[in-house]
Design brief:
8 strands; Putative xylanase fold; alpha+beta; 8-stranded antiparallel sheet
Length: about 300
């Protein structure tokens, strides 16, 4: 990224926070309608993208620009939950997963010059659900490893971890099926719980790769803005504990842009290797690169 573009993005960093404040003033409500505010934020982002011809950018660079605009957005978990299962989109509060999937979805529709909220719903439905089909709670790609495999198969992303020198990542996911008390749909529906257990077994049978944490710094130079980073964990029953994006700054550093539960907002953090090594339970990373959408 050149200095001019980087400085322009720096100036726009509070974009999401500014838009939420503007929407609050426009609605004059203490309890702002989340859907209306989300659509307002989305519309302004699309207006900027269209005005500046961002569709001409490589998708990774475009994802970096869109994610950078969302800096300062509050960290909010659980925004996808509710009954019945539907494709919920909330740009007023993001967690680590909804950040990267929202940015990926927006980038893909900008590339096609489809700037409508309906287009975003369709795009996120494609990436969030198995084979792009919304069919109840179990059809959502809850585990990051399952999300990666399904979106590789759909031609949305490419898993480049092995090419970067990754080694086999032996995983055994079972957290959801063994802790149904944390998931209302599983707590109340034994059939859904059985389906999740079946999915876990299928995922456990697949070959997966990761880059151990002590090797990340050696491959940082090969990472690109917009790469999706999944941080593997040693916690029982889980594959990955956190996700985010690579953003190369003006000095060429591969920094970690993510929705931080610790800092309570979307932030551009330190280099990805430094970040991963700062948490004892982190074991490494898997890297997937967005692919240009087919027109």
């Amino acid at each position: 990224m050149n200095r001019r573009n980087f400085l322009a993005l720096i100036a726009a960093a509070p974009f999401a926070v500014q838009l939420q404040a503007q929407s609050l003033r426009r609605t004059r409500k203490k309890n702002t309608d989340t859907v209306a505010t989300t659509k307002y934020i989305f519309a302004q982002a699309m207006r900027r993208a269209a005005k500046n011809n961002w569709h001409r950018k490589p998708i990774g660079e475009l994802m970096g620009d869109l994610a950078f605009l969302l800096q300062g957005t509050p960290y909010v978990g659980g925004t996808l939950e509710g009954e019945p299962e539907m494709c919920r989109i909330d740009l007023t509060g993001l967690d680590c997963v909804t950040l990267f999937e929202s940015v990926l979805g927006m980038a893909r529709i900008v590339k096609r010059k489809e700037y409508t909220f309906d287009a975003l719903i369709n795009e996120i439905t494609l990436t969030r659900y198995r084979q792009g089909i919304l069919d109840g709670y179990p059809s959502r790609l809850h585990y990051t490893s399952d999300w990666i495999d399904d979106n590789v198969a759909k031609g949305v992303v490419q898993d480049i971890t092995r090419d970067l020198g990754g080694v086999i990542f032996p995983i055994k996911i079972n957290f959801m099926s063994t802790h149904p008390q944390y998931y209302k749909p599983l707590k109340e529906d034994t059939a859904a719980r059985a389906k999740i257990a079946e999915i876990e077994s299928e995922v456990n049978a697949r070959m997966r790769y990761y880059i151990p944490k002590d090797r990340i710094e050696t491959i940082e130079s090969m990472l690109a803005t917009g790469d999706i980073i999944a941080i593997s964990t040693s916690k029982d029953g889980l594959d990955y504990s956190h996700t985010g994006l690579i953003f190369r700054d003006i000095d060429g550093n591969a920094r970690f842009l993510h929705a931080s539960s610790q800092k309570k907002k979307v932030v551009l953090d330190v280099r990805v290797g430094e970040y991963v090594n700062s948490v004892k339970s982190n074991t490494g990373i898997t890297v997937v690169r967005p692919l240009e959408p087919i027109s």
